[in-house]
Amino acid sequence: MSYPVDRRGFLRTAGVGAAALGLGGTLASCSSDKPSTATLTWWDYFTLDNFQPGMNRLIKEIEAGVPDVRIERRTFPFAELDRQITLGAISGDLPDIAIVDNVAMNTLGGSRLLADLTGRVKDWGQADQYYKGPWEGCQVGGKTLGIPNNSNCLALYCNTRMLQAAGVEPPTTWDELAAAAERLTGGDRFGLALSAIRTEEGVFQFLPFLWQAGGDLDTFAEHGPTALAFLDGLIAKGSLSEQCVGWTQQDVNTRFLNQRAAMQINGPWQIPTLKEADFDWTVVALPRGKEAATCLGGENWVVMANSEHQDKAWEILEYTQRPSVLVPYLVAFGELPARKDLADQGSWASDPALRLFLGQLPLARPRQYGPHYADASLAVAEAEQAVLTGSASPSAAAKTAAAKIDKALGGQ
Fold it and tell me: What φ, ψ does residue 202 adopt, rounded to 5°?
């Protein structure tokens, strides 16, 4: 998702009491047997109203369940959080803990801003409980720099009635997807909707096609044309609207809800809204090319390296991973667990749609490409835009993008 960036600086609002300082704690222990309370600042980007009940409940549980802790939370727009953390390295305005997008590990992981949790995780002994993709997304330079907060991925939603009326089965391969999308297109309805916007949202939806083609960013010149040509072919046949170059994932879901798209590529966060739809729908795995793949989304917990409360911060992270705390939190947010041992708990255990997404997590790949991933991502977005708007051929666009991607990845 993209949000307008507020260029104004932010002043730190979270106070830290003297009890949090070494000297202050010593003096307090001399004068009273009452333990001191550490105030930890917490940043995240969950600004929408529907997230607040679940987040407020989690904070209350932490303050009740972790001894001598108080939380002061601050929220930022999605696109602003990483920038504020980066600026905090200069201003000193940093939180103790934060919930960041898993893609942020590319830039933040190499900045020395994040605390190394490797030793704590080893002593904790629960790393093997996480799905491979989410856990690998927290590994940077051989160190564990975060703990998965939640996970999601992409799949294909289908309007059941439309597919039945057209005599079409939910597609499982690229060929079947192209044929189904063409057959389902008619009037003001397109067979397929997806996001190809010139932001990380569009790249998030494009990368599965690249991976399914057998490629990756480091082989974009070779495999990028295949993925780009497939999407370009959908537009050429009228099965996919060229307007997708301006659609966010929310725009795509609105198109599907309005029944102006028979199928859509989207994530599990759309399910609460789709449950209010006046038509039946189903969700299946993304149709495969040479191989099956989907893209990992979600957030990670991180602790700041300069925090004076790293021990308490770790206690908080560990506490949030307890099933009795984590399951209600994820249910409230409509998110999926990154932990394998929670697969049979929560709403995802019985909801067929959520269960489909959960079953795809072992295939979900993290976008873990190093500190210059943003430059590589932009090159991918520009290539997709060029092809889908007809300003460049798939091979030419891929060649141009590959040079930029190689430069970005080579600068790690």
Answer: -65, -40
> Using CA atoms, how far apart are residues 366 and 130, in angstroms rounded to an integer?
13
pTM for this prediction: 0.85
| Mean local confidence (pLDDT), 257-267 | 97
Q: What is the number of alpha carbons within 13 Å of residue 229 lying toward its C-beta?
A: 15
Q: How far apart are CA 408 and CA 252, in angstroms?
A: 30
Alpha helices by DSSP H, 237-372: 249-257, 271-274, 310-320, 323-333, 352-360
pLDDT digits (tens, 9 = 90+) for 179-223: 999 999 999 999 999 999 999 999 999 999 999 999 999 999 999
pLDDT at position 89, please? 86
* Distances from the Cα of 330 to the Cα of 3, 41, 135, 321, 339, angstroms: 24, 22, 17, 11, 11
> Nearest to residue 312, comparing CAs of 97, 104, 92?
97
* Alpha carbon separation from 268 to 130, 288, 336 (Å, rounded): 19, 19, 8
Residue 402: CB atoms within 10 A of its CB come to 23
Torsion of CA 345, 296, 226, 219, to 10 degrees: -130
Between 116 and 49, the more confident residue is: 116
